[in-house]
UniProtKB/TrEMBL annotation:
Entries under InterPro entries matching the protein: NST/OST, P-loop_NTPase, Sulfotransferase_dom
Name used for this protein in its record: Sulfotransferase
UniProt EC number: 2.8.2.-
Alphabetical keyword list: Disulfide bond, Glycoprotein, Membrane, Transferase, Transmembrane, Transmembrane helix
Positions annotated to bind 3'-phosphoadenylyl sulfate: 278, 434
Disulfide bonds: 435-448
Record flagged with keyword GTP-binding: no
Length: 494
């Protein structure tokens, strides 16, 4: 009897322990999971204070985008020239750390909009006093299944504002109406930031790289569709991937888009000499980049020209590229038509079988430094599969000096209201660059972009070298004007 009583007491103690211990175990597991998740994110974003970290005053960065900066942030310099700004459990965005002496206010590049882990902040990067409708105020008569599917979407205040405008319409994923293809180093990120303040244009942070990266392309169009934002019928779904522009195989892949007949393209073009130098400087500062081609380019530059100044290394790289693209001919000995013919012959050798000694590599260093600025060549490839009506050519100079005009042209091109135009921009004399006052209905706060992200800013190249590069590009700029854009580019004289 005593044994039974003792066993009964032990059973009661065990039951009480299970009642109280189970929630405790779950609580401890949840805390561990949250901390582990945070640790993984810190590791992923390279925020841990390693020796090559620096501390910067992010107030200028923060003020431009309405972020509460708090104290100076520790940032880890990443191999690709960017770093994450460390905040407590918050990813504030991307900063360009390409310069040794980092001036965050002038040298930063924000990737799209300030992004928090839970999506866009509802009260940080919007104007004071601006409130969003609640989910209840929307009065949605959707089925429980649809409401559940849309819960994350409606978690963001701006999306609730969009939903209120569209009543009972359910936003859907669709293939992009618009693709910003490039060119690299010509201001596509600035264009995207401006477009994100227009109520009609919708995208997702980052770049898709569907048509140019094997690991994405092999997942098929279902993957591409899944990467698109939810949009309503009167909105424009778009994406930006500058690497599309100079890949000869990309337009051929794009022709199989389900909406190939209606999709439109924006090509942002800039001074080809400056673009080439900026591209070169980018490649020279990306040691350890995960992309094999970029890493290969860096190794080529550092192994061959690591002891030279960047300007001297650029000159040597350009001469090697001239030799490859002109088939060994001296630039001063060839005519415009001979340059065109040599480049045309060069690209026909790109598709030769691996191992063929005559095969060329337009996407590798040193050749890529020049081929990326062959705008008319790449546009002609797009026009093998698409029509001129599907193309818009934006001059990066205009985007810098009159961004409102560029935004108005984009809206007209897509057949949507020009909600953002010259009236939404003003030149800040003190800062020396343009600032934007978004439309009132957007609820967004005013902000300023740095005058230039530019690795090439304040760099000086010898006039003789710049003139040689301009000589090479001359026939292709003439083709750009006469065959495609109709615009004059005499002001490209960096």
């Amino acid at each position: 009897k005593k044994a039974n009583t003792k066993a009964f007491k032990m059973m009661r103690i065990s039951r009480i322990f299970r009642i109280f211990a189970t929630p405790l175990v779950f609580t401890l597991f949840y805390i561990y999971y949250k901390e582990a998740t945070y640790d993984r994110n810190i590791k992923e974003y390279s925020l841990d204070p390693l020796p090559d970290s620096i501390t910067v005053d992010t107030h200028g960065f923060a003020e431009s985008f309405g972020i509460n900066p708090g104290p100076p942030k520790a940032v880890k310099k990443k191999d690709d020239g960017f770093a994450r700004v460390q905040g407590k459990n918050v990813d504030h965005g991307m900063m360009d750390l390409s310069e040794v002496n980092v001036n965050v206010k002038a040298k930063m590049e924000l990737e799209d909009k300030p992004a928090l882990k839970v999506g866009l902040s509802e009260n940080v990067d919007y104007a004071d006093g601006f409130t969003f409708p609640t989910t209840e105020e929307l009065g949605l008569n959707w089925s429980p299944e649809i409401k559940e599917q849309m819960s994350m979407f409606l978690h963001q205040g701006m999306n609730r504002k969009r939903q209120k405008k569209h009543g009972q319409e359910i936003p859907k994923k669709r293939y992009p109406d618009l693709i910003i293809t490039g060119a690299k180093k010509c201001g596509t990120t600035a264009l995207k930031i401006f477009m994100n303040y227009h109520p009609v244009f919708q995208d997702k942070p980052g770049e898709r790289h569907f048509f140019n990266r094997k690991e994405h392309w092999n997942q098929g169009y279902e993957w591409y569709l899944s990467e698109m934002p939810l949009t309503y019928n009167d909105e424009v779904c778009y994406e930006k991937t500058p690497d599309y522009f100079d890949r000869p195989f990309v337009p051929e892949r794009m022709k199989d888009l389900p909406n190939a007949d209606s999709v439109k393209f924006i090509h942002v073009l800039c001074d080809p000499v400056r673009r080439s130098f900026s591209h070169f400087l980018h490649m020279f500062t990306v040691q350890g980049h995960t992309d094999a081609r970029v890493k290969e380019g860096f190794e080529f530059l550092s192994n061959n020209f690591g002891e030279l100044s960047k300007e001297e290394a650029f000159a040597e790289t350009i001469e090697l590229a001239f030799k490859n693209l002109l088939g060994g001919k001296e630039l001063s000995d060839v005519s415009d038509d001979e340059i065109r013919e040599s480049v045309r012959d060069y690209f026909t050798k790109w598709d030769l079988k691996p191992g063929d000694p005559n095969r060329v590599f337009p996407l590798r260093i040193p050749d890529a430094i020049l081929t990326g600025s062959l705008y008319s060549v790449h546009i002609s490839t797009f026009l093998h599969y698409f029509t001129q009506d599907q193309m818009l050519y934006l001059d990066a100079t205009e985007l810098i000096e009159n961004p409102g005009k560029s935004l108005r042209r984009v809206a007209q091109f897509m057949g949507v209201p020009a909600t953002i135009d010259e009236n939404n921009f003003y030149f800040d004399e003190e800062k020396g660059y343009y600032c934007m006052t978004p439309p009132v209905e957007s609820g967004r706060a005013s902000f300023c972009l740095g005058s230039e992200k530019g690795r090439s800013k304040d760099k000086v190249l010898p006039d003789e070298l710049k003139n040689r590069i301009r000589r090479f590009y001359k026939p292709f700029l003439e083709d750009l004007t006469n065959k495609y854009s109709g615009d004059n580019y005499d002001h490209w004289d960096w």
